[in-house]
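Sample pair:
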Amino acid sequence: MHISNILGLLATTSLLGIASAGCFSGGATWDSVGGKDSANDKLGNACQKLQGEFKKDQEKLECESLTSFKVKYIGKDDGFRTLSLRECEDGLSKEITGCDHGGKTKYRNWEYTADPANEDCAS
């Protein structure tokens, strides 16, 4: 029994090193801005603009109506890293499908944020 508890703890700890996720607990919902399907439709256009080279700690924001899609390079390399279209869509779609109010997730190299109604996109 002790061995299974230790293995479970190790598995949980290693998963935390891969992704740190958090759904927003309040604010606008995807339903209030056309639904999750509409947000996923906007995602392709946003990622077309977000993909490409990033330098360390660089953040890019793309607004599609009031919806904001943000990606930040948080990797350990000081050089440049390229974000592919597929990687962008994959990371940001999880913030839409998994979170009713949008959310933010950190992986090894990237931090993805999708927000249904971001004030930065209102102007």
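The two ends are 58 Å apart (CA to CA).
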